[in-house]
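Structure tokens please, single chain.
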Amino acid sequence: DGTVRAFTTSNGQQNYSANHGSPVGALAYSAAGLASGGSDKLVKLWNPANGAPLANGTLPELAAGVVSLTFSPDGQRLVAASSAPGDVQVFGVNNRALEQSLREQTEPALALAATESLGPRIVLADAAGNVRSYELSGRNRLAGHSMPVTSVAQVPGAAGQVVSGSLDGTVRHWNLATAQVIRSMNHGAPVTDVAVRPDGQRF
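Here you go.
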């Protein structure tokens, strides 16, 4: 319905709602801000405390509807991906400026994660089953999944490690520095989302 709603986890009560203005395809949260991405190709920034729109909080239009968002761990950058192949953009949160475009992709991005444990990196999963790790000056391809990758997540407390889930029914634990699989787990059915416990001990 085009709204962004915040709830208190302890009691399920709604704190506020904000109107993005079109169906919302992605959300991202950090202490610096709340971001929503919609079918209108726009990313909008909100005050995470009360849902008020931030000044100059609408970022430059992407090529298609927004499907994934993630903040860098320091909250200073926001990565946005649309459903168009190669349309992954990195914006500065404070200046709202476009800092980097990742247009080498030939497939649409489906999921994003960001880490700075080995320097600024963006982990991108695409519809061809690829997981790619991008730096400001380069990238690594993490090859292993045989079907589209639906989700990625950073492993807290483990420098340069992420997990990915795929429609091929596997969850893979990666070392970004070596682009190698640490371990592969068979879920037994298509994986639609992955998450890592805050202590990094369970996926």
